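User: I'm designing a mutation panel for Thiol-disulfide isomerase/thioredoxin and want to avoid disrupting the core. Could you give me a predicted structure to guide residue selection? Please restate the sequence first so the numbering is unambiguous.

Assistant: Good idea. Sequence first, for numbering, then the predicted structure tokens:
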Amino acid sequence: MKRFFSFLALLCLFSGAGAQDKKITPQGKTPPAALQSGDKLPQTAAFKALNNGGKALHLDAFQGKLLIIDFWATSCSGCIQGMPRIDSLQKVFGHEVAIIPVTYEKAEAVTRFQASNAFLKKAGVSTFRTVVEDKVLHQLFPHRLLPHEAWISKDGVVLGFTDGTDVTAANIRKVLAGGPLPVPEKRDVLDYDKSKLLMVNGNGAPDSAFSYRSIFSGEIRGINSGLELEKDTLNHVVHVRATNVDARYLYILAFKQLRFVPRSQVDISLRPGLFCYEMTMPLAPAAMVREAVHHDLDRFLGVHAVLDSAGFRLVPLPEDDSAHEPLSL
């Protein structure tokens, strides 16, 4: 059920993933088609490998074993943290399982990494067999987040894809026993373009997937002026819409009592014109919502709104030299 009352808006808020975002798009002359679960692994040429006795690596050598292709990079902290576990699992299941690390990076870069990594130095670099300078496997198994694991059955059928943390002894045993992958399949959003706005035109996710957002613009001609405030208890969110209204009406969303202040005591000359504003946020107490709206409007208009016994006015923000400093993480 829905009911209407005074409310506010804010900004899109998302949680981040711990995995490394690494869009892999190696360029080959005739890129093979990407494989899906249930597809048969095609025959491939030999791959350049380190710590493989000076020989190239052939996937055909692992027929009859459960093959796990472990995509990694020297810049991926999750990949590096998982190396001791991968090494241990390979030793435990040596005759039944082959876990093959694969990277697109140059052999020289991987060699330098091996020489500086504490675990590999302790375990012995010769134990870390990895495919390097790969293009083909990245094209067969496209992904964005590392680590990325492709599971392939003893008879060469793609079983599915998982995160690195899903490569465990328990999961390996279940697959060796003939069962399916016992975890949800990892799916990367391969068409996400970080140079474009998130979720706009479906970039990264559908336009409706946001949890918290606010949108501002100037006047949009052809839309009626109006205010709408909605508490949606069914979906546990609050919606606020203001279309083609001046700053006074915008701030009524933050100051309920402003509607009773005589216009003669309202000074919005600092920010003339009409604005549009839309916000959706999770349900919250009215006071918290109004406070968030107040801050949101102040940030957008570059002012500090004041409502006191003298009336309502927009006060310019003080000069701040730090506003001209470069913005960086």
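For picking mutation sites, this is relevant: The two ends are 43 Å apart (CA to CA). The first helix runs from residue 77 to 81.
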